[in-house]
Amino acid sequence: xxxxxxxxxxxxxxxxxxxxxxxxxxxxxxxxxxxxxxxxxxxxxxxxxxxxxxxxxxxxxxxxxxxxxxxxxxxxxxxxxxxxxxxxxxxxxxxxxxxxxxxxxxxxxxxxxxxxxxxxxxxxxxxxxxxxxxxxxxxxxxxxxxxxxxxxxxxxxxxxxxxxxxxxxxxxxxxxxxxxxxxxxxxxxxxxxxxxxxxxxxxxxxxxxxxxxxxxxxxxxxxxxxxxxxxxxxxxxxxxxxxxxxxxxxxxxxxxxxxxxxxxxxxxxxxxxxxxxxxxxxxxxxxxxxxxxxxxxxxxxxxxxxxxxxxxxxxxxxxxxxxxxxxxxxxxxxxxxxxxxxxxxxxxxxxxxxxxxxxxxxxxxxxxxxxxxxxxxxxxxxxxxxxxxxxxxxxxxxxxxxxxxxxxxxxxxxxxxxxxxxxxxxxxxxxxxxxxxxxxxxxxxxxxxxxxxxxxxxxxxxxxxxxxxxxxxxxxxxxxxxxxxxxxxxxxxxxxxxxxxxxxxxxxxxxxxxxxxxxxxxxxxxxxxxxxxxxxxxxxxxxx
Length: 544
Prior knowledge:
Beta-galactosidase, Chain A, domain 5; nine-stranded antiparallel beta sheet; disordered N terminus
């Protein structure tokens, strides 16, 4: 029975795909670091000595004499979306709390800490300047001076500027300004460099250092990629996980681009000033077990007595898909749909469209499911008509089996002759299932990756669509709907297939019991629509 085999293969493919996707995250092939240079240029390691940049070890660049006796302080910046702690040592981002996102849906007052310098889940962002002339550029070990210890975004204001001051040798003065904006997870980092008595030549660097994450109450079915990413127009989107960084130092020289450390729903990313040649690097600190991904820009020269500016941007927060596209090219790829991005992006757009109407992600999922079902209505109709005709002739096939016994060749010929007379295509259900397969998997990743749906409530007991159904109502309904669908399908002749199909509703009920309820909601609605359509078509065929 072709349709049964196809359905069974589709089910097995879906399960194998999820196992493969998780295997890719854990053990997939790793990209090989290479050095990319433009014609006529020296390799990046010759132009930009990494020994000048303190990567992976906070003490690799010694403090200047006038810095050694000064202790650093913490500066707190509070906006409407983030609560940030900046260290006057380097102006580092040592702690970032997302004020609109909680750790769990059950405790909304416990806000999510994305960056922290605590020993567990260590994750900080650093930046600094480097110059061939010692004592004229503050690294991320330099001690800045701050005018205030607390900055708060006041009502009626949309911007906070946090200035940090540093003075070096030969009259060099540096003003590092961090700019925060209302309802924005992007921080502008501007260096205003007054060269002093001599020309100043140097560049800026930026890096993110973190430890391997310690998962707390993680769900094995919603594990996604955590690690580094580098992007530009040439190499596109390259992942560098913790094992990559530990095994070999990254050494990319690229024009423009950005780097990020990403995790499920959230990211921290550095965006260098556009139009520059950047060296992207990685380092592993074996003592602290810290992993660093960073970049350094090409050098600029500021004439004596003049003031120049070097800029960059730091993004820290949720992976909001509509905003990521506006921040930088390719940044929306951190919402990792994988090879099915071409299907997943339109699905998210449609999901977001329905959310704009209903202001509820549960109803958005339901109407997205209805829309997808409508698009594939004709293909589904072909499949259900084929199944209905197969169901109608099932008693005759059973008689043939009894008649021909073990003579499979004669049985096969008789069945094909009957299919020809009745105008039945035994594989008529294949194409619809094959066409819908990438859509189903894409929607799985859309519902899995969208931070917009994180902790989103639906109705009644479903208070968090990204967590499992606490009372397992949806998984049970899904199992019942699968059982009903089986009753509408023609019974398989092969006894092994019969047993497999009898077990499937129970197996899927158990498996989906631990899936995010938003995913299970989609499957339940899809099954209900499929049962309705198939029932109507089956009755028409049987009564004809």
